[in-house]
Amino acid sequence: MKITIAEVSKHVEEEVTMGVWLANKRSSGKIAFLQLRDGTGFIQGVVVKNDVEENVFQKAKSLSQETSLFITGVVQQDNRSKFGYELLVKNIEVIAEAKDYPITPKEHGTEFLMDHRHLWLRSRKQHAVMKIRNEIIRATYEFFNEKGFVKVDPPILTGSAPEGTSELFHTKYFDEDAYLSQSGQLYMEAAAMALGKVFSFGPTFRAEKSKTRRHLIEFWMIEPEMAFYSFKDSLEIQEQYVAYIVQSVLQNCPVELERLGRDISKLEKIKAPFPRITYDEAIQFLHKNGFDDIEWGDDFGAPHETAIAESHDKPIFITHYPTKIKPFYMEPDPNRPEVVLCADLIAPEGYGEIIGGSERIHDYELLKSRLEDHHLSMDAYKWYLELRKYGSVPHSGFGLGLERTVAWISGVEHVRETIPFPRLLNRLYP
C-alpha cells in the first residue's frame, strides 16, 4: 500500500510503501537510522541488520543525502519521537541517487543558502515556514468565505497607480505605459460596488530600494473591500481576521511551530479585540520614551513601530494619521480634516505593520480635488472617479501583507524565509 508520511497514523502495524527523499542518516553498528521526508512530513526509518537482507542494510548505509527512494516497511508507534511514529524498514528501492548535495548539516551563510534557495526549501525549518504560510492562506479563504465575501482577482498590469508611480515597475504595454501592480485596491473597490464584500489574494510589486528584514520587492497581499462599511466596521473585521488565522495556525501547525521554536504562549494571547491608539497618542508616547526626533506629520519608521508594539502583547491599531502622509483616496475625519479615517495594524515582537486600511472617499467632488492635489491623471483615473458618480456609498478596505504576517506568526527573523523564492533588492536568482 502506497501512502504519505502524513497518513502513517492510520496504518500502525501495517506494511506500507512511501516515496521519500533521504534528509539525513546515521548508523550505529547493526542499526541504520534514516531521516526521511516526502513533502507532507518527516519520519525516521529504522533499518535493523538482522531483520533485512544484507544488500538492503548495505544500501541503507551507503545512501547519500537527498537520494530519492521507494521505501517499504511497517509503521510503528514511537513515543520517543515528537512525530509519534517511525518506520521499521524492510526494503529500499533507489529511484535517483544524489551526489555531492551542496547543503549539508553544517552551518551555511545566508547568501549561500539564498543562492541555493531551490534546495534550501527542503530543510525542516523552511518546510515548517511554508506549511504555516499555507495554513494562513487556507484559513484566509475559510474566514472570508464564511463571512460572505466573494473572491475577485484584480489585474497585475495596470495603467495607473493607487499611491503614485515613484515605486512602481514600469513596462511597455504595446504602445502604452503600464506598471506592475502595487495593490489591487482600486479594482477591488469597483468589485465591491458590484458584489458587496470582496477580497483578493495575489502578488504585488514595489520598486522600493530597501534592504530591511521587513521588505520584499515582490510580495503577496490579501485585500478585502466592503461596501456600506465604516472605518469602525473595517477595524472589527481586521482584528477578527488576524485572530482567526493565528488560532488556525496554533490548532493546525503545532509540529511546525515547535520545530521553529516558536513561543506559542505569545500567540495564544492573540484574540480580538486589539488595542487602539491615535496617531496623536502615538506621538506623545514616543516623546515620553526618548524619541525626540519624531514630529507631528512625520511617518513612523521601524524603531517607532517597535517601541509602540512592545507596550502591548497583541497587535495594536494606530489610527487617524495626518492626511498629508497618506494616499489620496482616504476619507478625512469629518470632525478633523487634517487627519484621515485610517489605521495601521502593528504586529508585536518587532515585526512592524502587517495591515494598512482606511475608509475610502465616496464623495465625487472631494475625490476629484484629491486627484488634482496629487497631480494624478484624470484620464487614467476616470473609471475610478466614476465609481463615485453612479450610486456611491461609504466603503472601507484594507491590505494584509502575507509575508510579514508569516514571519510574525512563525517567529522567523527575515521575510526572505517566508516566501518560496524571494525577490530582494539584489536578488533575482533562482
From TrEMBL:
- For whether the record's keyword set contains Ligase, the answer is yes
Q: What is its EC number?
A: 6.1.1.22
Keyword Ligase attached: yes
InterPro entries with a match to the protein in the record: Aa-tRNA-synt_II, aa-tRNA-synth_II, aa-tRNA-synth_II/BPL/LPL, Asn-tRNA-ligase, Asp/Asn-tRNA-synth_IIb, NA-bd_OB-fold, NA-bd_OB_tRNA
Q: Where in the cell is it found?
A: Cytoplasm
Write out the entry's keywords from A to Z. Answer: Aminoacyl-tRNA synthetase, ATP-binding, Cytoplasm, Ligase, Nucleotide-binding, Protein biosynthesis
Pfam family, any one: tRNA-synt_2
- The leader peptide range reads none
Q: Which reaction does it catalyse?
A: tRNA(Asn) + L-asparagine + ATP = L-asparaginyl-tRNA(Asn) + AMP + diphosphate + H(+)
Q: Where is the Aminoacyl-transfer RNA synthetases class-II family profile domain?
A: 130-430
Output the GO biological process annotations, alphabetical, semicolon-separated.
Answer: asparaginyl-tRNA aminoacylation
Which GO CC terms are listed, alphabetically?
Answer: cytoplasm
Q: Name one GO molecular function term.
A: transferase activity
Entry's family note: Belongs to the class-II aminoacyl-tRNA synthetase family.
Subunit-structure text: Homodimer.
Please give the name of this protein. Asparagine--tRNA ligase
